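Apologies for my clumsy wording, but are you able to produce some protein sequence, whichever is easiest, and the tokens describing how it folds?
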Amino acid sequence: MSVEISGAVALVTGANRGIGRALVEALLAKGADKVYAGARDPAKLAGLVQQYGPRLVALELDITDPKQISAAAAAAPDVDLLINNAGVAGEAGVAATEGQNLVVGRREFEVNVFGTLALRRFQKNKHSASSRRGFHVDKPLG
């Protein structure tokens, strides 16, 4: 499957470091018109905002927070490419006690499964009327 990046408006979650940051930079380098960069702490995106100017919009976005998802939907009405990169990799199964396993495991599911599903619903709702791309990418778990 091929997706046209030139002219796209993308939303990348977990954009403040690592793979997410690299995805933001690659999208802009490939000609995306605009990238919304989602992060729990948008201040960590200041360097990217300074570097790319109005082509990069920092959004406060914790994908487990329905209010922040709604705010992102309102702030980014023109998204046609969603890259669900946000995720956590804890130590479920490795923690010292069964109780710790449950806490860490629940957090991983909240972010990696339910958070991702919440954003898929956001994407579907945004593009039910019309979209030129409506393309969605999830980061594989693991």
